[in-house]
Design brief:
Layout (H helix, E strand, L loop, with lengths): L2 H47 L11 H4 L11 H11 L11 H17 L1
């Protein structure tokens, strides 16, 4: 095997290992994101289980910007309002590394186009 072939093999192996590491990191992020959303869904169920008809507290601007989850004292509509702000993968509460995910998707789509 020539030095050139060895370099190509080494480079291919390095790219493959980088891809595996990227997949592992993305899988970890997705697992954290799934857990985060499972917690949010459980909060939705808890809000309606006992207090379906509980009147919501008025929402002023200070309350809209709170991050804390004192949701056990809130009515269902306010719980839903707060959760809809926190649900998206792009929210500041998300565990996803979006640039990493986009990079992985690009690699995946370029590999499909090469097949």
């Amino acid at each position: 095997e020539s030095e050139h072939e060895s370099h190509i093999t080494s480079s291919s192996l390095r790219r493959a290992m980088d891809l595996v590491n990227l997949l592992n990191e993305t899988f970890g992020d997705l697992s954290l994101e799934l857990h985060r959303k499972q917690v949010l869904v459980s909060l939705i169920f808890e809000s309606v289980k006992d207090d379906l008809f509980k009147k919501d507290f008025s929402m002023d601007q200070k309350n809209l910007n709170e991050v804390e989850f004192g949701l056990e004292n809130l009515g269902p509509s306010k719980v839903m309002f707060k959760i809809t702000r926190q649900w998206p993968r792009t929210s500041k509460w998300s565990q996803m590394n979006m640039p990493q995910l986009e990079s992985l998707l690009k690699v995946s789509s370029s590999n499909r186009s090469n097949d």
